[in-house]
Design brief:
mainly alpha; 92% helix; rod-shaped; transmembrane; Spore cortex biosynthesis protein YabQ; membrane
């Protein structure tokens, strides 16, 4: 490598070391480190470091066509140390400010969407539901009224036929009762005659 390429490589690796420090703090901010072992955290750690390695290798490809030397690791370490000593405190404050800002913007957007989109949609849906219920009740009342008009002649005919049937049944029962009364009269007359004989 020429001196220019080496210089650019060192600068790029120092920048990459600073990037790794900032990315590590960002990752720890969104991935809290608790004492309990968690397989998901373990997988996330592996993915994080693989992505960082791929990013550094891509930078190396762009700067010196992927040549790896000891000075590259020293430059990475120097960049990381520079971040830890000079930039970490300021970056963490900036990160917290950005998180607070984006959380506030997200809440504001959520409130705006709820106020101007979701709430009006709920009101419209409630009105449509109430209107549909009213229309359903009105239609059911009209249908029941029309059905009552259509069934009224059948109702009259049914009542008439039922009365006829009841009259016939009543007449038959009266006839049977009269027949039974005649049957009971004959024994009663015989008893009277027998009592009369004793009186004589």
């Amino acid at each position: 490598m020429s001196l220019t390429v080496q210089f650019y490589t060192i600068l790029a690796m120092i920048g990459s070391g600073i990037w790794i420090g900032a990315a590590l703090d960002t990752y720890h901010r969104f991935q809290p480190r608790d004492k309990k072992w968690n397989w998901l955290r373990f997988v996330n750690d592996i993915v994080f470091w693989v992505l960082q390695a791929l990013l550094i290798f891509y930078v190396l490809l762009q700067v010196n066509h992927g040549e790896v030397r000891v000075i590259i690791f020293l430059a990475l370490l120097c960049g990381f140390a520079c971040y830890q000593s000079l930039l970490q405190r300021g970056y963490k404050k900036l990160l917290e400010y950005l998180i607070t800002f984006f959380v506030g913007v997200t809440r504001m957007i959520k409130k705006l969407v709820s106020t101007f989109v979701i709430h009006p949609i709920k009101v419209i849906l409630n009105l449509l539901l109430t209107l549909s219920k009213m229309i359903g009740r009105l239609l059911s009342s009209v249908l029941l009224f029309i059905l009552g008009i259509l069934l009224f002649p059948f109702k009259i005919i049914g009542v008439f036929l039922l009365q006829k049937v009841l009259k016939r049944i009543q007449a038959k029962m009266l006839t049977k009762l009269k027949g039974k009364a005649g049957i009971w009269k004959k024994p009663t007359n015989k008893v009277k005659d027998w009592i009369g004989k004793f009186k004589r």
